[in-house]
Amino acid sequence: MRLSYLSVAGFFCASVLAVPPTPVADPSGIPKNRYLSMSVPSNGGEPMALRVTLVALHHVNPPYIAQPTPPPFSSFEGEYRWVGPPVFATENDNDPTPFIAAPLQCTPYYHDWSTLGLFHVYGDAVIPSSAYEVVALDESCTSAEEGCVDISSALPISTSRFGDVTSPFHPPATTTQPDIADVSSVVSKASRAPLSQSKASEQLQPNIPDPTRAVNVWDCIMEGNAYAGYGYPWGGPTSCGAPQNASSEPPTGNVAAARANPTLRVFITPVPAQGTSSYPAGTQIVGQELIATSGGFRAFFNVQFQDFNPDNVVSLRGYQIQVDAEGMRGINANPPAPGVDMALPQEP
User: Fold this and answer.
1) Tens of pLDDT, residues 144-182
2) Per-residue pLDDT tens for 210-252?
3) How confident is the model at residue 295, as a pLDDT?
């Protein structure tokens, strides 16, 4: 807060202007693909709400080589989102470095953000090749955020090109990005190598990243696709209801499953081994269960969708079934089987 004084007929009148501090960019200066990194100076311990304006979304220049026309997200430009409750995680199971993140949401959330230090904002509206502005609102704005004047100056933040996770970045560099250094960086992070970049730089998927999950083989696959010239594959932002500063056309992407009464059902059914692969002797398939007597083999499944889009609102262009085996250790099995651990999944 700051005081302003007005002299009227020889008297001084003091009024309080509850202007919160401006958020501060990540001092490393490293742009991210799927996170907006910042910190917030102290406001005397008072809560603040953080508002993120979607200034320019997915303006790719030069165009993707293998996908010249990227998905259009311009209908969301000018809208804003709010930063939600923080999530506390670590970089991965081999690196206990704290990783603090906060999701975007549609409603204001007041918090003393200065206690977090550096944190990373994520959500389906944080996408590559985009520009944002972040402002802090004083607690005096609660329930009256529209038109409230107790607001900080704006912090501009931009995201890097899809897959461009390490220096040199384009722009300002003129070299083709991402390059092999970006691929190496994501692979290094996924392999838990020490001194690798933050998860905020290396995590590329899915549409809404999970800050509690370590960078893994799927991020490597996304990085490989970006290196090959393919574009950002995810559905992008979803609507907050009535548009704030945009047209009322429905958002693009896979939003049919996010209705008030979801209808989508996904069946992942184990099937017999394919090609030259084989299951251990004694393996059984019982309904949706694959029961094996030992590990060290590749399993095969059919993936089926039912009632994805009953209203014909959105077409399914592609899907990814992700199985994250981290933490699935034999010691946690029933009965326990120490040393019989699941490995990361592989595509057939």
Assistant:
1) 999 899 999 999 999 999 999 999 998 887 888 999 999
2) 999 999 999 999 999 999 999 998 889 998 864 443 332 333 3
3) 76
* Distance in angstroms (rounded) separating the CA atoms of residues 121 and 36: 5
Domain map of the chain by residue range?
Answer: 22-247, 265-306+318-348
Mean pLDDT of 67-72: 71
> Are residues 82 and 36 in contact, defined by beta-carbon separation less than 8 angstroms?
no
Give the list of residues 6+ apart from residue 33 with CB closer than 8 angstroms, or none: 128, 159, 160, 162, 163, 164, 165, 201, 203, 204
Q: Confirm if 100 and 116 have CB atoms less than 8 A apart.
A: yes
Average pLDDT of the residues in 64-90: 89
**Residue 93 tokens, joined:** 């199971």
d(CA 124, CA 219): 16
Q: How many CB atoms lie within 10 A of CB 278?
A: 12
Tell me the per-residue pLDDT of 28-55, one tens digit each, with 9 for 90 and over: 999 999 999 999 999 999 999 999 999 9
What percent of the chain lies above the pLDDT cut of 90?
56
| Three-state DSSP string of the chain | CEEEEEEECCEEEEEEECCCCCCEECCCCCCCCCCEEEECCCCCCCCEEEEEEEEECCCCCCCCCCCCCCCCCHHHCCCEEEECCCEEEEEECCEEEEEEEEEEECCCCEECHHHCCCEEEECCCCCCCCEEEEEEEEHHHCCCCCCCCCECCCEEEECCCCCCCCCCCCCCCCCCCCCHHHHHHHHHHHCCCCCCCCHHHHCCCCCCCCCCCCCCHHHHHHHHHHHCCCCCCCCCCCCCCCCCCCCCCCCCCCCHHHCCCCCCEEEEEEECCCCCCCCCCCCEEECCEEECCCCCCCCEEEEEEECCCCCCCCCCCCCCCCCCCCCCCHHHCCCCCCCCCCCCCCCC
